[in-house]
Design goal:
Strands 5-4-3-6-7 form a five-stranded mixed sheet. Strands 1-2 form a two-stranded antiparallel ribbon. It is an alpha+beta fold. The chain has ten helices and seven strands. The longest helix has 13 residues. The radius of gyration is 18 Å and the shape is globular. The N and C termini lie far apart (about 50 Å).
Length: about 220
């Protein structure tokens, strides 16, 4: 299928020619946290057809945004990963996510809750570097059957799939609760009291994590 083009000599128009098709930016969102198999992408993108996902991946690969790789044995699976060109889109995704967060409260109640990997950018979107100066912490997130590592050091943040060796805190929760904490719809203390979350380590680190990575308040 031929990709439509704006046919304009403009950086923005050219960028939209590459990533402006429906589902494309969400595919990139899924790959921000690390390489994914085709089946992983289907899970993180409910509603997309296999044919359309194949088409979008092919287009992104042709543009050098993603690349296919084969994992070493015993996995030996084919995965899709962002190239340096694709990784360069991360600041754009963060800004778009931050802009879109103001409309989350107006979202249709039928909107689907996603898996943890789809929300890799969420704590990075809300992250406040000014409050994280001098902080050196590693957090393990066990959310909805998946695990991520959040590393905060000297005003920077990184998030990736997998378990850290020595986390300062391990948080256990379901996805709706985790999102509720990040969006300030659920109070951390109430979540602890009501048993909505379980924390391994110092519970004060949960409050620190939400302060640094939760949606900013008006206070």
């Amino acid at each position: 299928m031929k990709t439509r083009s704006y046919n304009q000599l403009c950086g923005l128009a050219i960028a939209l020619d590459i990533v402006g098709e429906r589902w494309t930016m969400l595919i990139i969102r899924e790959l921000i946290g690390g390489p994914q198999r085709f089946t992983d992408l289907m899970v993180g993108l409910p509603g997309i057809s296999t044919n359309l996902l194949t088409e979008r991946l092919k287009g992104l690969e042709q543009q050098g945004v993603i690349a296919r790789r084969t994992l070493p044995p015993p996995a030996a699976s084919t995965v899709y990963a962002l190239t340096s060109v694709g990784q360069a889109l991360k600041p754009t995704l963060l800004e778009l996510g931050n802009w879109g967060s103001q409309f989350v409260g107006e979202a249709d109640a039928a909107c689907q809750m996603l898996h943890l990997g789809s929300y890799t950018l969420t704590p990075q979107t809300f992250f406040r570097p000014a409050l994280a100066q001098g902080v050196d912490k590693t957090y393990a997130l066990h959310i909805g059957g998946e695990t991520q590592t959040v590393r905060i050091v000297a005003g920077t943040i990184d998030v990736w799939q997998g378990e850290p060796a020595h986390p300062d805190m391990a948080l256990h929760a379901e996805v709706p609760v985790y999102l509720g904490l990040l969006t300030r719809q659920i109070d951390p203390q109430a979540a602890l009291t009501d048993g909505l979350v379980c924390v391994d380590g110092d519970e004060a680190e949960l409050f620190r994590y939400i302060t640094l990575c939760g949606m900013p308040t008006d206070e």
